[in-house]
């Protein structure tokens, strides 16, 4: 089995910072891309940031310049440093990992964490 677990969410004032962490564990041969998504009560799921197996990054325009995604390949972990937070950043943040299970089987599967709540409010 594969477990993907996020942590680091919480309540923060506008302009503040949070650092989200995500670690994948279990039957893992390798991980391709990892990323962060967020979802509001309006059921809009938004890609926030991704980082590929070779370190290439992508950011949504709404977070560009404020958020930084990074990765620890040895720990199967991905992080999201969130600075200059705004109320509109309030959401449940989900970690995603594209995981290859076997040295023989090349197919990758998407795994999701259960999410961590980020609330930006005065």
Classify the secondary structure makeup into a structural class: mainly beta
Q: What's the helix-strand series?
A: EEEEEEEEEEE
Q: Uncertain spans, ≥5 residues at pLDDT below 50? A: none
- Global geometry: elongated
Ends apart, CA distance between termini: 40 Å
Q: Name the average pLDDT.
A: 96
Question: How large is the count of helical segments?
Answer: 0
Using only C-alpha atoms, the radius of gyration works out to 14 Å
Estimate the strand proportion.
Answer: over 45%
Percent helix, as a range, is under 10%
Number of strands: 11
Strand count, sense and closure of the main sheet?
A: 7 strands, mixed
Question: Could you explain how this protein is built, in words?
Answer:
28% of the residues are buried. It contains no helices and eleven strands. The mean pLDDT is 96. 0% of the residues lie in helices and 57% in strands. The chain has strands spanning 2-7, 10-12, 18-26, 30-39, 45-51, 57-59, 67-72, 77-82, 91-100, 108-112, 116-120. Strands 2, 4, 5, 6, 9, 10 and 11 form a seven-stranded mixed β-sheet that branches. It is elongated and about 50 Å long. With 122 residues, it is mainly beta. β7 and β8 (77-82) form a beta hairpin.
Please outline the helices and strands:
Layout: E1 2-7, E2 10-12, E3 18-26, E4 30-39, E5 45-51, E6 57-59, E7 67-72, E8 77-82, E9 91-100, E10 108-112, E11 116-120
Parallel strand pairs: 2-11
Antiparallel strand pairs: 1-3, 3-8, 4-5, 4-9, 5-6, 7-8, 9-10, 9-11
